[in-house]
## 1
Amino acid sequence: MKKLLFTLIALVCSQALIAQSHMRIHLKSGDQVDIPVADIDSVTFVESGEVPSEEAELKGSWLWGDADAGYYELLTFNDDNTYTCYDNYFTYGFDTNTYGWYMQYGEILNLLSGGFGYNRRNTWYVTGLTAHKLDIMTRMGQFNYYKLQEETITIQLGKSVQWNEGDGMVFADGVVVVAEGNVLRGQTQGVTYIQIRDGQTNEIFAYKVIVEQAFNGQK
């Protein structure tokens, strides 16, 4: 009933706005707020305190990492149903790349890859998907991947960056970068990936990190 009432109100407002240049909102405090009609795209009624959540989608890059296991994996799902998988075995000093196609049917995620002499298919069960976290169940157990953020962190060799008080490092390879609490230090020139837990939201975010040589004249 509430949704129907809101819909009727929205329809009445839209008809009234057609011949007007501004929409005036009267607040209980006695104040008025005028909003230009040309600036209004849509009107949405929400419960008090309700905040729209970010859309969860599989597309994009997701990072899993385990310092004890000695490697991390970066999965990238593309719009055309192709995917890439980059595995870096930093403990042993080598990496691998896999290319293939993926198909999702509800909670079932199939990863298909092939090449000269082999044809591989992995079937995963998606147990959870949010804007920042992908939980999957495989034959080898359950794994948590975290969405790679657009921001890239650049650190000069031997220098450090520090996050906010309460933030903590969840994963760092210990080879290219070394984590000490909420401080990350560039140890070896190269590219790597990390996971950081936000101290306020408790969410985990993944970032790409580039460690580069210091510029000439800098120590």
Note: The two ends are 68 Å apart (CA to CA).
## 2
Amino acid sequence: MEPHRDQRTFRKIGNELPSDGPKPPPLGSPARTSGMVEAHFRICREDNRGVRPRSPSSFEERELAAVARQQYQALLVEHANCKRFTPTRTFVHSERVVSAPSGKPLTINFLAEARNAAGDFIVLSHQGWSLHPFNCPCFSHVQVSAAAPNCFDMLKLYSQDAFQQEIRSIRRQGMELLLGLQHRSFIIEECLSAIEGTQGFKRLEPSSIRQIDVTAASDREARLLFTSSTAGRTSLSVSLVPGYWNLRVTASTAR
């Protein structure tokens, strides 16, 4: 499943309302998370070749959705490697059937919200676990095929709060996040992948990174500078894809 749609990425959507105008929704409120739900439906529609997807209706579709929910929740528990990443609550919802070309199995897309005992949001994606505080929502857009109901393709969807929180963490302790001395940073992992793609490295070892700087940041966009003993200085643009709330990272050689 493509992240949407040009490499797990995002662009600036706008700024918060000015402080002297109407107040933005409280942190963690439904108004803060509704954008991710809407993004999920947009991605489902694109996966369905532009046709509005429907909820599971036949017995087979409902059974697939039920099995996928159970298997996904079991996967989260099975892969939890510490208490912080052990889900105590998992809410799976908004299942949509994505049709397939003739002769191929259909897929089910759904949205998952998982929290640990402290109420923090935990997300399992292709880069591993990531964690956000209880007031910084972060969900998983998940796809599963009828051909393999226990194999999942997971895309991390950020709220604006979660994105800003992660950028602040990188600003304060980027090297600790990189080296695994703090919880993982999905943004740093995607930056490493982007540098590898630009430089042609098979793998950029975290130990080769000497410094990480956040050179600019706004509500839904940031610029980072990675300095590496093997790749030199790389400037990275990190942003939220408008309307899709997933990550776009692009890299270029810094002068």
Note: The first strand starts at residue 89 and ends at 98.
